[in-house]
Amino acid sequence: xxxxxxxxxxxxxxxxENFGNRKLIRPSLSRETLRAVEPGAxxxxxxxxxxxxxxxxAAAQAAxxxxxxxxxxxxxxxxxxxxxxxxxxxxxxxxxxELHGIIEWYDKTCIKLxxxxxxxxxxxxxxxxxxxxxxxxxx
Length: 139
Prior knowledge:
The protein is 26% helix and 22% strand.
């Protein structure tokens, strides 16, 4: 590490600034900014306040997007399809237990699984289900 200041910095001459070749760039200002700079400017072009409140511009209405749907109903469609075709399903619970059967009905919080003869039918809370798949499909 050197001691003291850099000698090149002291030896350089200050550059003379040449303003002859520079372009003047003028920013585009909105009407509100112009009014702030020049209070009397564009008074004739300014719409009245009652006209502004009466109807928003068409561009502002087109820019507003509709909110997305709360629910896509994809889950309901899937359950309906499996119920109508009586597809054998495998339901894997959060604990890892595999339950085999056919979905008989469903609601917002649970499904009813009809199992093979000799086994009891089950009412399973959806919150207890990790995932489910068709019995013929490999995991």
